[in-house]
Amino acid sequence: MNLWLLSAAALSLLTTGIHVLAGGPDVHDPLLAIDMPPVLKVYVSLLWHATSAVLAVNSAALLWASISRRHRQALAGAVVAQYLAYAGLFIGYGLAYVGTLWQTPQWVVFLLIFALALAGLRSAPLTLSKLAA
Hints:
Layout: H1 3-33, H2 38-67, H3 72-98, H4 106-122, H5 128-132
């Protein structure tokens, strides 16, 4: 088992939970409370829940990559690319719309997951037996 990728999977799963449990009431629900056409509310909810699904699938992909050498490069590589793109989006839109990175701090966790997963892909697997030695 690759502990770098397992750590990335755990952080990704934690991020998924925070998105669903904290982000829902703080972001999704207030967006739905705004007076807008119903079709826009559909898109807000679709995008919100699609993000939840992608985060969950990425967490599972990283977990599987931590276990399976055969699929490690493809699974973790796809997640690394997505999370790097997400970090870039949060940085870009945070700076462009609010002039700071700290009102959209999600980029930090996406870069951290990216770094953990990249370490798992680039290095010899960090395993429990190596930690015990």
